[in-house]
Amino acid sequence: MVELICRDEHEKLYLQLYDILKRKIENREWTAGMQIPTEEQLCKMFNVSRATVRNAVLELVRQGYLVRQQGKGTFVSSNFISEGLIMTTVFKKLWVEDESSLSKEVLAKTVMMPISDLSKELNIPENRHIIYVKVLWLFQGEPSIIQESFIPFNICPQLLEEDIENQSIIDLFEKKFSIKTTKVLTYFDVINLKKETSQLLKVSENSPALVMLQKVFSGDTVVLLSKFYKKTDTNKFFITFQRKAL
Amino acid sequence: MSDGKLVKDVMLGIFEYPHIPYWFSVEQAIKVVKASFIKTEKHTEPLAVLVFDEKYNLLGTVTLKDILRGLEPSFLKPPPKQVPEEEKTGLAVVWDSLFAQESKKLAQKSISEIMVSAKYFVEPTDPVTKAAYFMIHFDLPLLPVLEEKKKFVGIVRMVEIFDSISEEIIKE
To answer: A60 and A116: one domain?
Structure first.
């Protein structure tokens, strides 16, 4: 059955077509690996312009539903996972509800070797140098979060010379060193704070804290590993997800 | 020296050596030594670890000898002025007691307690003879090279100093 585009709706035509084609994939009417109709055929099927078809297909490619193969056509992606909603978020330097009342104090920027699990986490040999950065985040002037960051030295040796007091490492990667972030894995856990961290956060030893570990990738390479230790206060960790505005 | 060789001609890059911050424990330093030198085929003699502060300033160096010395309580005591002859021969019975239980506790202390502070430096433009003088006079396994007394840029080793100076001496 061919769903029809409603021209009375205010929604753009290509967004309507995007939804229709997406449903075909999610309902398995179009199965993994299958070649979809050509642009011309889709134009006739839905009585829309080529530009409308092109935009809708392009968005489906961008979202991972379809793959284009040069000279062969467009196919339904075989590794597309349809469970869950596809939503987007804005990556922030710090995932908290209120960023405006935060200030930053760099406690350390030095070089070390990857001990404990660090070499495994960063996927580098144990004898490779890493840049270590430790930051104290203050919320309304009070210690709130400790951030420890580990960067394989060979990824960005110049980082040692950079002012990280006023810029985030990811901003420097993106804007100055052309290191593009392609994926971020985020893990949450709860721990009891050790003496040194609890002193910095001005809480008693063994106080519970939320730990967020972020592994930042550029392609297959881990370019940054950050651990955030957050004590309980009124500024919560906060992430917004929303359907991508097309 | 007539050939005028300078420190910058013979120094090694600092990344030839592992780096650790001063708050690492001796145990963590041992793990770094094992991972950087013992498990790998390629390593740079003398085996030493560079210790830095939180602003990446060099604080000192730690050699394997410094670590072992720091792990044995009897080495931490000031040495007796003269070891009596009977103690020298009697030492054999105490070998088993060296590096025993107490060493495990000592391994938890900070590396800054056992490192050798970096007190002597040379500049890249200094002659190698100056580096030789410091290393011999103060019995240093390696010597840091600082640019304008601030930026740590290299390491000087005895092997290159020896090579450079001896070359000149045996030249006919």
So the answer is: no
